[in-house]
Amino acid sequence: EGYAEDAVVAVLEVVREYNMTYPGPADEQQIFREASRALESARGAALPAAIAALSDRNVNARRFAIRVLWQFPGWDKAGPAAMIHATRDGDAGVRQHAVEQVGRFPEPPKAALPLLAEVVGNQKERMDTRQAAAKILGRAKEAAAAAVPALIEAAKAADPGTRCSAIEALRKIRPDPSLVIPAFVDALEVV
User: Fold this and answer.
1) How far is CA 171 from CA 112, 141, 149, 166, in A?
2) Residue 25 has pLDDT above 70, yes or no
3) Which terminus of the chain has fewer CB atoms gathered within 10 Å of its CB, N or C?
4) pLDDT at residue 116 above 90?
5) 164 Cβ contact list (under 8 Å, min separation 6)
6) Could you tell me the pTM of the whole model?
7) For the residues of 2-35, what is the DSSP string, one character each?
8) Residue 63: Cβ within 10 Å count
């Protein structure tokens, strides 16, 4: 226990050298699993270090941190702001994992909703990231009403998964039908 903070620093130093994409090469995934297990034993000391690693200059450290943050006690209280901030990371992998982690909350944090709307509306974002963000917005229901314009645009996306996720989110949010019916018609024409 007395060496927990040193152990966290050492684990983060190791993961900086490995590509933390998923799925990645088997040996790198094994490194990820072992590093994750090592941090589990550090418990309380690992959470602040994982949150701090989200601002690390090294993309592998950020990818690792966002993927393991949820496993530490207190992540649901200390981690949301860091997770939400990570949805704007310059790396698509970090953004993807950040959106997935925000999705772990039983109720999406209200502060995340505008950023999730940005993700959904960003046509340059990865399809799976846009789809995950749309699903979370749908779970937020009426609280995500401000995301309706971004979801309407996403309902016109070339990718059928993004279209479906956006339309399902709109169905759950239940905006004014006069806003969404044209988008639904446009989505059908894309097919």
Assistant:
1) 20, 9, 13, 9
2) no
3) C
4) yes
5) none
6) 0.84
7) TTHHHHHHHHHHHHTTS---SS--HHHHHHHHHH
8) 28
